């Protein structure tokens, strides 16, 4: 695949937000070190202020400071997607304007949650963001995750939104492969996997890449998997995907992904702490032992 079909790279990590030990402030120095670490290990894009970045618990000012710090750390060549979605359109538009001014290459717009808007409401909300993005020559990635938002983007909604020049991608955590297969066949919008357990199936379906949590610990392996898939070596891509399955289960199946990712990064010495902000809490000692055990057991594939 050419880079033109991968506007935000192929291996893109939904980056955690490091905090001070007491959780009171965003640790911008640690965020810069983490961003550089991820890029050095094979990421060709980063998502800042997404769900895994604990965006519900960070202020707007913290979000913008984090985005600016990461942009300074990785330079202009690494695509940065800024999470700007909320269930309040006015708030989303304010975040969009600030993110664009602070160096975002694209805007990740989650389906508005809690209020359960109609499809017409979803369209109106997203088009307002897209109009701002178009004015600044930025792109919008839709985030379809009904398990968290309560409302899925209907195929007809995605088709309509895809007609806007700024709306180019979907991060799919819905997993309806038949529905998405039809949309991929129509070719009006680019898909990214939003579910690490399905990263290779998504590539096989024609997705551009992945927005990953597990890539915090598995970026080199995912980069190798994408390279093998691109080269037509499906056997090797499948081998890597299967070898990573226990790691995906350990990171995503036993505790919130942000909790597991921070714990793993602390274990690797990349972060000095695994502080969370409520309502998320740090892993229990049993959870920590189990996760580190899996990571240690599978270190070869992760390196």
Question: Can you describe this structure?
Answer:
The chain is of the alpha/beta class. The chain contains 13 helices and 8 strands. It has helices at residues 28-40, 60-74, 89-101, 119-135, 146-149, 155-161, 177-186, 199-205, 215-230, 234-252, 257-267, 285-297, 299-302, and strands at residues 11-14, 45-48, 80-83, 106-110, 139-144, 167-172, 190-193, 209-212.
If strands are numbered along the chain, what order do they take across the biggest sheet? 1-2-3-4-5-6-7-8
Sheet with most strands: 8 strands, parallel, barrel
How many E strands?
A: 8
Q: Please provide the ordered H/E string of secondary-structure elements.
A: EHEHEHEHEHHEHEHEHHHHH
Estimated share of beta-strand residues: 5-15%
The N- to C-terminal Cα distance equals 25 Å
The residue-averaged pLDDT reads 96
Query: Helicity, in percent?
Result: 40-55%
- The backbone outline, from C-alpha atoms, is globular
- Computed over alpha carbons, the radius of gyration is 18 Å
Identify low-pLDDT runs. none
Structural category is alpha/beta
Features:
eight-stranded parallel barrel; 49% helix; 303 residues; alpha/beta; globular
Give a summary of the structure in a few sentences.
The protein has 303 residues and is of the alpha/beta class. Helix content is 49%, strand content 12%. Strand 1, helix 1 and strand 2 form a beta-alpha-beta unit.
SSE blueprint and pairings:
Blueprint: E1 11-14, H1 28-40, E2 45-48, H2 60-74, E3 80-83, H3 89-101, E4 106-110, H4 119-135, E5 139-144, H5 146-149, H6 155-161, E6 167-172, H7 177-186, E7 190-193, H8 199-205, E8 209-212, H9 215-230, H10 234-252, H11 257-267, H12 285-297, H13 299-302
Parallel strand pairs: 1-2, 1-8, 2-3, 3-4, 4-5, 5-6, 6-7, 7-8
